[in-house]
Amino acid sequence: MILQASAVGSIALQLLNEEKTFTVHSMFEKGLNMVDQDGELIFAGTDENGTFPFGILLDPQTKQMLKTNIQVGDTLTVRHNRLSHKHFDMLLNSKTLPLNMDFERANITQLKENLQYISFESYESTDFQRARMLSLINRLHDPTQNLEKTFRYFIGRGQGLTPTGDDILVGILYGHFINHFIEHKHLETLKALMEEPLTTIVSKRFITCALDGLFSSKITALQHDPSSESMNRLIDVGSSSGMDTLYGIYMSLTKE
Description:
The chain is an alpha/beta fold. The protein has helices spanning about 10-15, 60-70, 110-115, 130-140, 150-155, 165-180, 185-195, 200-210, 215-220, 230-235, 240-255; strands spanning about 1-5, 5-10, 20-30, 30-35, 40-45, 55, 75-80, 80-85, 90, 95.
């Protein structure tokens, strides 16, 4: 059986250009995650949660055919621009997903204004209350601070494939790229911590991408459309991931 990818993210493309083997890591409604022998992760699925630089975009019918013929633990090999499984070959000669790194286009004033209409009060009863968030944000400005212990508090804290603390950090990093405020030293500290097994493999992928200025399309949409509708589309991602990410963006932009 021959399947066709609709588009491939730039990071996924780099990994798929090499001859290697991937193992199916996890499966869910919108697609699946697979990892290579080095722990590098690729998502293959539809775009309800946005598109990703480490993703293979599939149309709904292709996604369903893929999921019907594969299971967790299965292996796939990359050769000659195709991803091969015992039941199918997926052709990868498709377009490349845009990176949307035009952060200078973000209307920060409009973003701040519309963020005021989103309620983040529920975080006051969690491990990520406003006071703790402000402490982190303010220290990110300061090159004299050592934030390793603080980052360890956030990384991996929460439930799911992308714990709340990680999603918040991704949001803060997005806030940094549209309005630079984090000292380089602290970015290097966070990058070094990603080499340790502190969180899920999926979250690690999101954070390492965010450190390089690479985000999902539901996040980068905000620099083109800072409307409440665009924010609500981000909020709809996952059970809480989108909201957690938006909380991080909110705190990073309303820190004054």
